[in-house]
Amino acid sequence: MLGAATDPRDPASAPESTLVQAAGPLAGLHRAIGRIAAVALWTAALGLIAMTAAIAWQIFGRYILNDSPHWTEPGSLLLMSWFILVGAAVGVRESDHLGFEIGLAIAPPRLRRAMRLATFLLITLFGLGMTWYGAQLAAGTWSATMSGLGIPQGVDYLPLVVGGLLMALFAIEKFLEILLVGEH
Asked: The whole model's pTM is what?
């Protein structure tokens, strides 16, 4: 349960990460990144709800009013980009990303640690690449107008920038956790 006090004698009440138990800057870093992840997850959930509402409005407009709104399809696609990429970043923090679990399971502890460090280093580089190239795409298309929404086309690429930054941030957190605290 979130916000509940943990009892060190009860394994069911253990904190979600060993960084919480660490003293000093790692514990503060973990709490701050946890708040960012919670906001990102809620943002993704609200985006999914908004996209569902927009599609419902499009269906209502098309079949009941016989006048389909012009903004619902591009708006829904933009919302979908946001909730997919922000949600994927949270998946990195929660270790819900794709992985080769059988390889980790059979690897000796030192190799397993090296594999996990390499994984989060690669995810960090991938997230930074998404950010860099997403920013270039956004800047390069900012002067065009998105059909149906009337906003700059570059807005369509901002989810790459934000999702990539969050992915890199969460991967760095996991990398530091493995490097400084160890496996959990």
From this structure: 0.81
